[in-house]
Amino acid sequence: MIARKVMLLGEIGVGKSSIVQRLVFDRFEMNYKPTIGVDVYRYEVPATPTRSAMALIVWDTDGNFGEQIFRHVYMREASAAVIVGDVTRPHTLDTLAALADGFREALPGRTLSLVLNKLDLLDPGDEVALPGALSRMGAPLHRTSAKTGDNIKTVFSETADAIDRRRL
User: How many structural domains is the chain composed of?
Assistant: First the structure.
């Protein structure tokens, strides 16, 4: 089975660890424990009619890195990034856009997925105001909830599909 490295990026508290915990273990922890440095997880994306099964090695990064992450050894050999923002904290969406720009500059041509997390905290019908840069990004934009599991597997399945299409 082919394995590819996926970076999970975003500010502290946007739900990166909760997303990967939901993905890998199908659980959600209410006790917040910040990631220090990086935690590494393996998730096997099932085969589809157009793609073989793929193991994603997900690097859950410490949100303190900010844009300095692109100069860090952690980024070596990354095939993709999943960048997360918190819909209840608009400034994290600006950071999401900045990290997406930084990833594209540091690793041109690599797969990029953008995640708006914590949809379960919004009232039905609430709209999320997206920063202009994020609206024009052209990367897939996923709305998720790590708490409920909504769209979490879809993000990583579509990321695997995009990696496969690019053969990185």
Answer: 1
Write the pLDDT tens digit of every residue in 15-50: 999 999 999 999 998 887 777 778 899 999 999 998
Residues 6+ apart with CB under 8 A from 117: 14, 15, 18, 19, 84, 85, 86, 87, 144, 145, 146
The CATH number that applies at residue 19 is 3.40.50.300
- The count of other CB atoms within 10 Å of the CB of residue 3 is 11
Q: How many helices (H) and strands (E) does the chain have?
A: 4, 6
Global model pTM greater than 0.85 = yes
Q: What is the DSSP letter of 50?
A: T
Please name the residues in contact with 6: beta carbons below 8 A apart, sequence gap of 6 or more. 56, 57, 58, 59, 78, 79, 80, 81, 82, 156, 159, 163
Confidence of residue 93 (pLDDT cuts 50, 70, 90): very high
Separation CA 96–CA 114 (nearest Å): 8
Place of tokens 């594209």: 104
Smallest Cα–Cα separation from 158: which of 9, 51, 74?
Answer: 51
